[in-house]
Amino acid sequence: MKNAGSIGMSRRSFLASSASVAAVLAVSGQAGLAQAVTPHKLPDLPFANDALEPIISAQTISFHYGRHHRGYLDNLNRQLQGSPLATLSLVDLIKATAGRPEDEAIFNNAAQVWNHTFYWQSLKPNGGGEPPERLAAMMRDSFGSVQACKQALIQAANRQFASGWAWLVQDGARLRVVSTSNAELPLSEAFNPLLTIDVWEHAYYLDHQNKRAAYTEAVVERLLNWQFANDNVVT
Ligand code: MN
């Protein structure tokens, strides 16, 4: 299977070309994030708490969005008090702190704020199904079939050891599936994220306990917002 599985890139290489990140986000509809200034704010969920049931319950959303996502945001705003980094947009903050051990705590919270906002947008009630034709054609070109692309995404999500994320990314004219650990994210000049799946245990444990595969397969088949991914493609 082409492009399947994890690419073991470091945070530094994902974020090697910092100048492109804001541009990528602006093009990919994330301008609101790119413009954010401190105190950073929690974006509204694009659906009701119970809209993703039974795959992702209202209880999971209440903790995941209301406690985890908000927690990263509150931690970040607290860490930025009195810091020269407080003037940076969220994306510039991620770029400025990536790969710097002394800024790891700020990077982790900033990246998790961005990742979760992107994750909520990657899901929709009654999602899944057939992607829009432009995206489907790219899937066929890069993976052989739409189903093979979906399987690569499921496999990357299931194989990511411990906490992390599985991503569909655009690499020029091609698509790739990659996974990242903890708060890391595939933003670079080469990689334009199209959608993501959270595979931290807090994303699925209340609903699926240890059965991560049950969560990832249901998300890919029934919740992914292919229109969002298609709209994020840069041509
Ligand atoms: Mn999460």
Structure description:
A 3-stranded antiparallel beta sheet has the order 2-1-3. It has helices spanning 11-14, 19-27, 31-34, 58-80, 90-97, 104-122, 133-143, 146-159, 205-208, 212-222, 226-232; strands spanning 164-171, 174-181, 191-198. It is mostly helical and 235 residues long. The two termini are 25 Å apart. Helices cover 49% and strands 10% of the residues. A hairpin with a 2-residue loop joins strand 1 (164-171) and strand 2. The chain binds manganese (II) ion.
Compose a concise summary of this entry:
This protein is 49% helix and 10% strand. It is mainly alpha-helical.
Topology overview:
Layout: H1 11-14, H2 19-27, H3 31-34, H4 58-80, H5 90-97, H6 104-122, H7 133-143, H8 146-159, E1 164-171, E2 174-181, E3 191-198, H9 205-208, H10 212-222, H11 226-232
Antiparallel strand pairs: 1-2, 1-3
Helix pairs in contact: 4-6, 5-6, 7-8, 8-10
The structure holds manganese (II) ion.
Manganese (II) ion (MN) binds next to α4.
List keywords for this structure.
single chain; 235 residues; mainly alpha; three-stranded antiparallel sheet; 11 helices; 3 strands; 49% helix; 10% strand; disordered N terminus; binds manganese (II) ion
End-to-end span in angstroms? 25 Å
Unreliable segments of 5+ consecutive residues: 1-13, 16-36
- Lateral strand order in the biggest sheet: 2-1-3
> How many β-strand runs?
3
Binned, the helix content reads 40-55%
Mean pLDDT across all residues, rounded?
Answer: 88
Number of helices: 11
How can the largest sheet be summarized? Answer: 3 strands, antiparallel
Q: How much strand content do the residues show? A: 5-15%
- General form: globular
The structural class is mainly alpha
Rg over CA atoms: 17 Å
Secondary-structure element series = HHHHHHHHEEEHHH
List of distinct ligands in this structure: manganese (II) ion
